[in-house]
Design a protein that fits this description.
Blueprint: H1 5-16, E1 19-22, H2 23-31, H3 35-42, H4 44-58, E2 64-67, H5 76-85, E3 89-92, H6 95-102, H7 116-131, E4 136-139, H8 145-157
Parallel strand pairs: 1-2, 3-4
Helix pairs in contact: 1-8, 2-4, 3-4, 6-7
Length: 160
């Protein structure tokens, strides 16, 4: 969250001449409610179940850039599916950068807590082993959306 997944994803899709989808937007469309409301009314386990189902639907598509929420990697099956059907890219940012980018945003249910800085630090530390499984990683803290997208386009075009 707050690393630029949607903004960078849109720009990357434009550069590659691919389609773009934000998984959270698709979930909201299918569930006919906002993510924050899904968390509030049904809880995180329900959300993760829906997220997994929607990921499976999207994973069948070609030439798509898919922005996923940061918690999607908590399920090893999701990681396996993303790596099998495409490249798993982790966008990261410093805690300070994330806090600055998401402050005053009530649509981030995971951060609707009394101490958001501590929550971000906890999530980054807890999710680090999962994020480390990505095929590619880019720290977006000091880069523009265009710089990150260009860097990713170059990475994706390079031979292994």
């Amino acid at each position: 969250m707050g690393t630029g997944k949607t903004s960078v994803g849109l720009k990357l899709a434009q550069l590659k001449k691919w389609h773009f989808i934000d998984l959270d937007d698709l979930i909201e469309l299918q569930e006919q409610r906002r993510i924050v409301d899904i968390f509030a009314k049904k809880g995180e386990p329900y959300f993760r179940k829906v997220e997994k189902k929607v990921l499976k639907q999207v994973a069948t598509q070609n030439k798509f850039v898919v922005a996923c929420g940061g918690g999607i990697v908590l399920d090893p099956e999701n990681i396996k599916l993303m790596k099998k059907t495409g490249k798993l890219i982790c966008l990261s940012a410093s805690c300070e950068t994330i806090l600055k980018r998401v402050s005053n945003n009530s649509t981030r249910p995971i951060l609707n807590v009394a101490k958001p800085r501590e929550r971000i630090e906890f999530l980054l530390k807890m999710r680090a082993p999962y994020y480390a499984q990505a095929d590619k990683a880019v720290d977006t803290s000091d880069l523009s959306i265009k710089q990150v997208a260009l860097k990713l386009a170059k990475m994706l075009s390079a031979k292994k």
